[in-house]
């Protein structure tokens, strides 16, 4: 098999047209796009919009106080103690404290809360994307908190939060604010009770629940970085078509038949095409990254971790292209024309669009972005970009596993489709 791989590499090295297409063309295109669109992609300031949420308060404060007072009297507490606890409960009403927090100026910069009378109204608003979700304050919320604080009873007081998408930034902001509020309330309530009221719960608008930050990323992804990756993964796909087309020509010129007569295993031939496609893709991408860095400083200053992760992603993507090569090889050997390879070569442009090689597809819609991430080049492009933004391998593992899965599926398909009988 080694001799077959060597043959493919030597054949490629002698083909000037293929070398130009695989190396010089993507370098030329990334330089044009990098200079032309550099101003559009280097927008470094990020400003968060105020998130809209709803709140449904099912409880009535006076009813909750009356219910709590009834419990106190049933416990046989003196009148003076009952009145003192009721005053403390009213002052420490968690629902009121929560409302005051949302009305504070710093929180209103991040989240705007709209009251709703019913869940149906809030759900309708969420469906129309008027709000990102809603908070429900249960009927016995404050009552349960008071029983836990003053009577030391085991009760559960929970705020019910419904959001459209927990991964959205506005949902994360809401979760962070609510978590901070609950921790601060529990802490100060405990201190107030332990000191017998000498330490009072601080006003909600004096608490620090976070702030809006307008920030500039330290090293934003510039146009040269984006298009180096975009053009790289795009033109890497042409390797599969190029190697598979050579396999078809070898069949037509009876080279394949002579190889088989030399006692080479048919599977060895197939896997040689996969390995050739993988090696050529790997070398193509590494050369492109190095040339782009030398000429445009694309990846200058990147640390060892970045380069190690980049090499891993490049290897996995090269395996995907190698698997595509093996599949196209099997189809080409079965076919009576090179139409299969020609169709794939035409389809590469579609994959390039969906994968975001020419422009970030999230600017069109989230659906196209999700579809693009299920294409080989799209998954690789997203992996590279996330590594550049500081994500570690664990966070991009789903994309890496996706590429491995694509490789296995196409390789198995190639083996199953490879002609088992002698070709005419």
Topology:
Elements: H1 2-13, H2 16-36, H3 38-41, E1 45-46, E2 51-57, H4 61-74, H5 79-91, H6 94-103, H7 105-110, E3 111-115, H8 119-127, E4 133-137, H9 141-150, E5 160-163, H10 169-194, E6 215-216, H11 223-252, H12 255-261, H13 266-296, H14 304-334, H15 339-355, H16 366-372, H17 376-388, H18 397-417
Parallel strand pairs: 2-3, 2-4
Antiparallel strand pairs: 1-6, 4-5
Helix pairs in contact: 1-13, 2-11, 2-13, 4-5, 4-9, 11-13, 11-14, 11-15, 11-17, 13-14, 14-17, 14-18, 15-16, 15-17, 17-18
Question: How does this model look, in words?
Answer:
The longest helix is centred in the middle third of the chain and has 31 residues, at 266-296. A four-stranded mixed beta sheet has the order 3-2-4-5, with helices on both faces. The chain is 67% helix and 6% strand. The protein contains 18 helices and six strands.
């Amino acid at each position: 098999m080694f001799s077959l791989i060597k043959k493919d590499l030597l054949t490629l090295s002698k083909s000037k047209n293929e070398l130009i297409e695989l190396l010089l063309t993507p370098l030329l295109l990334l330089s044009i796009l990098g200079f032309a669109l550099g101003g559009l992609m280097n927008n470094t300031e990020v400003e968060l919009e105020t998130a809209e949420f709803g709140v449904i308060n099912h409880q009535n404060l006076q009813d909750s106080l009356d219910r709590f007072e009834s419990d106190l009297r049933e416990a046989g507490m003196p009148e003076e103690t009952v009145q003192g606890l009721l005053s403390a409960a009213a002052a420490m009403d968690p629902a009121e404290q929560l409302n005051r927090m949302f009305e504070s100026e710093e929180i209103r910069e991040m989240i705007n809360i709209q009251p709703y009378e019913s869940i149906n109204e809030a759900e309708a608003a969420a469906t129309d994307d008027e709000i990102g979700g809603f908070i429900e304050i249960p009927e016995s919320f404050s009552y349960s908190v008071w029983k836990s604080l003053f009577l030391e009873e085991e009760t559960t007081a929970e705020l019910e939060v419904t959001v459209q998408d927990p991964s959205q930034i506005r949902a994360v902001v809401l979760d962070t604010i609510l978590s901070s509020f609950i921790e601060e309330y529990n802490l100060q309530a405990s201190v107030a009770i332990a000191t017998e009221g000498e330490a009072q719960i601080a006003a909600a608008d004096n608490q620090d629940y976070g702030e809006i930050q307008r920030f500039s990323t330290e090293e934003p992804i510039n146009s040269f970085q984006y298009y180096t990756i975009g053009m790289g993964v795009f033109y890497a796909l042409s390797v599969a078509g190029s190697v598979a087309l050579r396999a078809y020509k070898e069949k037509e010129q009876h080279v394949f038949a002579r190889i088989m007569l030399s006692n080479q295993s048919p599977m060895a031939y197939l896997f040689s095409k996969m390995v050739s496609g993988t090696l050529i893709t790997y070398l193509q991408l590494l050369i492109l990254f190095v040339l782009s860095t030398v000429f445009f400083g694309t990846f200058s200053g990147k640390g060892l971790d970045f380069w190690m992760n980049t090499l891993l992603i490049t290897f996995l993507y090269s395996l995907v292209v190698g698997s595509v090569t093996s599949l196209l090889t099997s189809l080409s050997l079965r076919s009576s024309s090179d139409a299969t390879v020609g169709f794939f070569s035409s389809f590469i442009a579609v994959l390039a669009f969906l994968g975001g090689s020419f422009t970030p597809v999230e600017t069109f819609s989230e659906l196209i972005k999700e579809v693009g991430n299920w294409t080989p080049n799209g998954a690789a492009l997203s992996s590279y970009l996330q590594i550049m933004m500081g994500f570690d391998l664990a966070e991009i593992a789903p994309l890496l596993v996706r590429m491995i899965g694509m490789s296995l599926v196409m390789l198995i398909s190639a083996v199953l489709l490879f002609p088992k009988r002698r070709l005419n």
